[in-house]
Write a structure and sequence with these properties.
mainly beta, 4-stranded antiparallel β-sheet
Length: 98
C-alpha cells in the first residue's frame, strides 16, 4: 500500500505570462516521511514543500513561463524517504497579458 497519496496528480491550468504561477497539490502521508529528491522537467519548474510530511500536506509547484506563449507541460517527480516516487504534472495554455 502506498504511504503517500495525492488528491490529483495531473492538472490542466491556464496561466499568464506576466508572473510565475504557483499550483498547490494536496496529499496525505500515512506515515511520517520526507522528500529526498525532486526531479523537474525543465528549469522553469520548482517546488516548495514542508520538511516532514505527516497527515495532510501540500506541495507547491512553481512554474515560471514569464514572457512565453503557447502551451506548456511541466512535471515534478518526487522521491520520498521510503523509496516511493510520485510524478505531479501540470499543463495548459499560457495566456499573453497586455
Amino acid at each position: 500500500m502506498k504511504q503517500v497519496v495525492f488528491e490529483q496528480i495531473a492538472k490542466v491550468v491556464n496561466i499568464t505570462n506576466d508572473k510565475p504561477h504557483v499550483e498547490k497539490f494536496k496529499g496525505i502521508a500515512r506515515i511520517p516521511l520526507s522528500i529526498t529528491k525532486i526531479i523537474t522537467s525543465c528549469g522553469c519548474t520548482g517546488a516548495n514543500y514542508p520538511p516532514t510530511l505527516e497527515g495532510d500536506f501540500e506541495v507547491d509547484m512553481l512554474v515560471n513561463k514569464t514572457g512565453s506563449s503557447g502551451f506548456y507541460s511541466v512535471s515534478l517527480e518526487l522521491v520520498f524517504s521510503n523509496g516511493e516516487r510520485q510524478m505531479l504534472s501540470l499543463g495548459g495554455e499560457i495566456i499573453k497579458t497586455e
